[in-house]
Amino acid sequence: MTQLQDLVHQAESEFSAISQPAELENAKARYLGKSGVITGLMKELAQLPPEAKRERGAAINLAKQGIEQALQRRRDSMAEAELHARLAAQAIDVTLPGRGQQGGGLHPVVRSWMRIESIFRSIGFDVADGPEIEDDWTNFTALNSPQNHPARSMQDTFYVDVQDARGQPLLLRTHTSPMQVRYARAHVKRYAGADMPDIKVIAPGRTYRVDSDATHSPMFHQFEGLWIGENVSLADLKGTYTEFLHTFFERDDITLRFRPSYFPFTEPSAEIDMMFDSGPLQGRWLEISGAGQVHPNVVRNFGLDPERHIGFAFGSGIERLTMLRYGVGDLRQFYVGDLRFLEQFNSD
After folding, report:
1. Which of 62, 89, 116 is the last residue of a domain?
2. 82 shares its domain with 119
3. What is the number of domains present in the chain?
4. 16 found inside a domain
5. Distance between CA atoms of 92 and 107, rounded to whole angstroms?
6. Roughly what angle, to the nearest 10 degrees, separates helices 50-89 and 2-17?
7. Residue 270: is it exposed, middle or buried by C-beta count within 10 angstroms (0-12/13-18/19+)?
């Protein structure tokens, strides 16, 4: 027994003197390996009688456990020493000043969005928001584009594999005009049986169409405007939109023209073009919006009498306005996530 205890003490002493993991594994092999001391003692058991074999085997196992425990303690102490050395080498001087965080900024399209809302609120318009997944009736039919209407082909969109209560597929809205329907119907319901104030609202938000190039994106931002009352004319449209452009671009040298066009939800309809009277784009007509007098069918879908209520609607792309305001030539730059491009707008 004393021999085995001495063997354990010897192993403990040898392990304690080792400083390298590889040397420790070599020492382990000398005691516990296939040719180690403990293995040799276990082989000698075959020469002993049964009773002595059990007693001697138990003693050898205790010695083996003692050596294994000593080995593990040394492994743990070496690992702890290595960790402390690494921490000491990587120590942080907490007295040093902290690293300042770089200030963020708003995306240029968001800047334009907020600017548009602020301008129209200042002239008495509400701002409406609603779902980006729309039903077919609100997105198309209520806006005078029933099924199989040729105008739908101009607004190829993304459909959702879910149907609404009418059995029609849901879709990602192709414009924010559905919010005109939702807002107007809620407005009429709210003032039922009472004197109803004019409906004056803009609806900014994300819209979706199957289109992608330097001036189009599958996802883009749009804002629609609607003014319905008993005495609203296209002169109000021209005055409102002209004032908006002057304020948005912060310049008065802007000329507008209205070109006859076609939209199913307005009649008559027009494309609004603008021209800067000075600067890099001087003399160029730029298409900026679609507009017109709200079609009688759409007024009826609002829940109003088109013989009594009349008004105008318009729709503009926020990216388009942003590109003109900041001189950006490719719409796709807004969405590639290049901080070198986006940081240019942080100081504005």
Report:
1. 89
2. no
3. 2
4. yes
5. 36
6. 20
7. buried
| Highest mean pLDDT, choosing among 32-46, 67-81, 147-161, 210-224 | 67-81
- If phi over 0 gives left and psi between -120 and 50 gives alpha, with beta otherwise, what is residue 277? alpha
Q: Give CA torsion, residues 33, 38, 40, 41, to 10 deg.
A: -170
For residues 204 and 273, membership in a common domain is answered with yes
What are the beta bridge partners of residue 317?
A: 222
In whole angstroms, give the CA distance from residue 67 to residue 41: 14
Q: Do 285 and 153 fall within a single domain?
A: yes
Report pLDDT digits (tens) over 89-126.
Answer: 887 777 877 777 777 788 999 999 999 999 999 999 99
pTM over 0.70: no
